[in-house]
Amino acid sequence: QVQLVESGGGVVQPGMSLRLSCVASGFTFSDYGMHWVRQAPGKGPEWVAVIWYDGSRRSYGDFVKGRFTISRDNSENTVFLHMESLRAEDTAFYYCARDPSLSPSYHFDHWGQGTLVTVSS
Amino acid sequence: DIVLTQSPAILSLSPGERATLSCGASQSVSNNYLAWYQQKPGLAPRLLIYGASTRATGIPDRFSGSGSGTDFTLTISRLEPEDCAMYYCQQYGSSSFFGPGTKIDIK
Questions:
Q1: Do A45 and B46 touch (CB under 8 A)?
Q2: Would you say B88 and B46 are in contact if contact means Cβ atoms under 8 Å apart?
């Protein structure tokens, strides 16, 4: 069965960096676009970023403003989110999620369990 | 950006009753690219419906989606206790945005 397992969350100070990882199993990873979606406590989900199945294209939510980078390693079935210049408003659960299409459709048919990022001094 | 609204904010119903959840968009959703997700406390969202009306794999047929353009509906025909959750709509025709959610409480 499809499994997505995130790691790398934690408590960081404002302005610091963090790299999240998501290891996939149970499907042919290189056939799917992958996303990061975040959810602040008590709020609705917010799409963060997508990377095409082959890593050739990436797209980000407007709020990212060049601070985050999504990447993937298809040999390791892993997608990453590198976050810089973190702000308090970036505090959220970060989920990786699979797009059901080769060319991303921007909806999500499988989600990981999430990893919590807390930005606080 | 397309802004989504959801109503009601909270729906309190008894098992066996019918639940009707609404999702409105500030402009027409391209190709009816509208999805519904269920989220239980402490868990990730689960895809229920995509393309406004197509059930995702493994979703019971008591969940159904309808609508087009700017007005969409999720209907749960016969509520069961395990349907107690938050429900979010998402448009993915122009980037991706979620609504604020409807909470279903089971009496």
A1: no
A2: no
Residue A62: what pLDDT? 92
How far apart CA B5 and CA A32 sit, in angstroms, is 30
CB contact under 8 A, A107 and B44: no
Computed over every residue of chain B, the mean pLDDT equals: 96
Q: Give residue-wise pLDDT tens across range A32-54.
A: 999 999 999 999 999 999 999 99
Say if CB B8 and CB B99 are below 8 A apart: no
Which regions of chain A are under pLDDT 70?
none
Is-contact A110 A4, C-beta < 8 A? Answer: yes
Say how far apart CA A15 and CA B29 lie, in whole Å: 37
C-beta of residue B56 within 8 angstroms of C-beta of residue B39: no
Whether the CB of B2 is below 8 Å from some CB of chain A: the reply is: no
pLDDT at A20: 98
- Residue B48's H or E segment, with its range, is strand B46-50
Pairwise CA distance, residues A49 & B41, whole Å? 24
State which residue of chain B sits closest to A35, comparing Cα positions: B96
